[in-house]
């Protein structure tokens, strides 16, 4: 029989919340949880159906997400976000189940989509980074507005915002996913030179590649902050938006160069597919993407942010003037407020209008309330625009590019796998997130959010 102490330990590892409570107080968050779990399972079905390294890729994405989240919770300099309380919570109620599986949707989908381009090894990771950001964009914008998580109010890592999303969130997703992809393919190339990149080289080799990619993706992502972000931002106070556009420009140019080189190979493969009378097939990846983008189009039109109530862990309340140091990669020592000042804070996505009393100093578990769209039409335009662009982009990857690489060994049949809902064979088609980087606090007062105040 469990003692009270044993029960507390068990609840640290895993704790459950009644979905009815979430539906009553935070209904949009329940929508986000459910659809993300469904999409992760769709990706798992795609992986199992295609065989080879696809299932290892799905597991690698899960491990990458766990590594990123857990390291962030235990390193004070990047412990700057708090997830809303979901149906299943892990690690002291810091990690929702849906965040664990989010990476297996975001990253898996991007890697599989980009694989259709048949890019050279030096370009593929960067194309994956771009592709992940296009999935993440509507999620980040709507998620913070609907209180699916909150950010530290004054942390220099995440001070510059885009619709209250730290610019470093986009930088983080692109660099971490590209780092994971580089290791996932690189280790396999070293250990299995005679197999294609998504054909299995055996359990032990693939397990090693999975573990290394899941763990090393984060440090390789952090390294990519060094040439652009830290020297420009930390040393010269350049706005993070500029750093992100510079970094993404490099990614685009590398991808473009690789795509031009791969065009001839795709043309040759497409010629062979025409001879086999290949037909279009709708698969699990396409369904997951359709669900993903439709969810945010639906939410931006129908959700009422001001009615969202988020009970749970947030930035600890405390004295307004107490600060703590933040150490940067280049040796700078910045600072942030140690506590949230309820009398003077700069987070326009929440307030305390739905509670009778303000949280007390020392409290980190309290209730926050959502706020109205400052300009609903603008949110509709930016979210719908991001979703439409994302759908068009992935249509080009999954349908208009080359075939999906086979997971079957060349000794077996390599023509592909069964399409979803069809017995005919064809080539199947295929992050609180947390910012990583450093930011010098701006002038006192409003954050340097160039879009919304």
From TrEMBL:
Residues 404-453 are annotated as: Disordered. Residues 444-453 have a biased composition (Basic residues). The keyword Cell membrane does not apply. Keywords: Membrane, Transmembrane, Transmembrane helix. InterPro entries: DUF7802 (IPR056704). Coiled coil: none annotated. It comes from the Eukaryota. Residues 404-443 have a biased composition (Low complexity). Residues 11-396 form the DUF7802 domain. The chain crosses the membrane at residues 29-49, 56-75, 95-114, 126-150, 170-187, 207-226, 238-259, 280-301, 379-399. This is DUF7802 domain-containing protein.
């Amino acid at each position: 029989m469990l003692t009270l102490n044993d029960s507390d330990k068990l609840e640290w590892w895993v704790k459950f919340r009644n979905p009815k409570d979430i539906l009553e107080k935070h209904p949009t968050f329940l929508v986000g949880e459910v659809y993300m779990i469904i999409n992760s399972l769709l990706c798992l079905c795609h992986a199992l159906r295609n065989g080879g390294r696809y299932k290892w890729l799905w597991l690698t994405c899960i491990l990458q997400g766990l590594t990123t989240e857990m390291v962030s919770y235990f390193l004070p300099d990047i412990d700057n976000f708090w997830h809303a309380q979901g149906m299943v919570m892990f690690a002291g109620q810091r990690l929702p189940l849906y965040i664990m599986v989010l990476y297996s949707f975001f990253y898996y989908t991007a890697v599989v989509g980009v694989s259709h381009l048949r890019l050279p090894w030096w370009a593929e990771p960067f194309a994956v980074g771009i592709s992940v950001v296009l999935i993440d964009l509507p999620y980040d914008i709507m998620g913070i507005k609907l209180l699916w998580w909150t950010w530290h109010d004054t942390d220099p890592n995440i001070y510059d915002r885009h619709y209250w999303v730290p610019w470093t969130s986009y930088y983080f997703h692109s660099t971490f996913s590209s780092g994971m992809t580089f290791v996932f393919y690189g280790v396999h190339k070293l250990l299995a030179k005679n197999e294609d990149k998504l054909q299995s080289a055996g359990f032990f080799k693939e397990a090693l590649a999975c573990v290394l990619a899941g763990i090393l993706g984060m440090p390789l992502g952090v390294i990519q902050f060094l040439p652009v972000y830290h020297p420009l931002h930390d040393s010269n106070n350049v706005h993070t938006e500029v750093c992100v556009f510079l970094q993404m420009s490099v990614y685009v140019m590398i991808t473009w160069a690789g795509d031009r080189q791969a065009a001839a190979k795709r043309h040759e493969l497409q010629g062979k597919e025409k001879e086999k009378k290949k037909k279009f097939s709708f698969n699990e990846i396409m369904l997951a993407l359709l669900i993903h983008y439709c969810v945010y189009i639906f939410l931006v039109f129908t959700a009422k942010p001001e009615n969202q109530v988020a009970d749970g862990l947030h930035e600890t309340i405390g004295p307004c003037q107490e600060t703590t140091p933040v150490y940067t990669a280049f040796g700078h020592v910045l600072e942030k407020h140690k506590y949230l000042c309820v009398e003077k804070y700069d987070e326009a996505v929440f307030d305390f209008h739905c509670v009778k009393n303000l949280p007390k100093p020392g409290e980190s578990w309290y209730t926050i309330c959502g706020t109205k769209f400052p300009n609903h039409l603008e949110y509709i335009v930016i979210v719908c625009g991001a979703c439409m662009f994302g759908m068009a982009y992935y249509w080009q990857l999954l349908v208009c590019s080359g075939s999906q690489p086979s997971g079957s060994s060349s000794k077996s049949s390599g023509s592909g796998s069964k399409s979803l809902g069809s017995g005919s064979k064809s080539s199947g088609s295929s992050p609180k997130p947390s910012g990583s980087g450093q930011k010098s606090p701006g002038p006192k007062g409003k954050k340097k959010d160039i879009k919304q105040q």
